[in-house]
Design goal:
Length: about 140
């Protein structure tokens, strides 16, 4: 839990990059650097602030360590998998959709891929977090 500022800086950066991809992308499904770097920096700063608040909360209430750790791992899984889903959604070939009569939906595929990646990453992260909580409960306390 001592790494909360660093972990939440990564989460903040990932969340803001995903927001940039979703709302500031160009038609080629790319986000220009002048739009993504300020978002990245703002996400890092916000994440560090949240991480420091979590450290302070942990000092006041030690019982929050496990739930916050579980949420942290789920968020990390989300911000790693969501951009992968965006890339996967943007790689679907356009001519396959045109032949299927779904050409009007081409622009939505990266966002749908990002949502699917976010859900999958969150579930995977939560599974890892739950596994860790179960392992921690089995360890004898000294």
């Amino acid at each position: 839990m001592q790494m909360a500022p660093l972990l939440y800086a990564l989460v903040g950066a990932g969340v803001n990059l995903c927001l940039g991809m979703a709302f500031r992308s160009e038609p080629s499904y790319r986000v220009p650097l002048d739009a993504s770097v300020p978002l990245l920096f703002a996400g890092v700063v916000a994440g560090v602030v949240v991480g420091c608040l979590i450290l302070a909360a942990r000092a006041l209430r030690p019982g929050v360590v496990r739930p916050v750790g579980l949420v942290t791992v789920a968020l990390l899984g989300t911000v790693v998998a969501a951009p992968v889903g965006w890339v996967a959604g943007s790689l679907v070939t356009n001519d396959q959709l045109v032949r299927a009569g779904l050409a009007r939906h081409i622009g939505q595929l990266p966002a749908v891929g990002m949502a699917a990646g976010a859900v999958g990453g969150c579930l995977a992260g939560a599974a890892v977090g739950v596994r860790q909580v179960l392992l921690d409960r089995r360890r004898p306390t000294s």
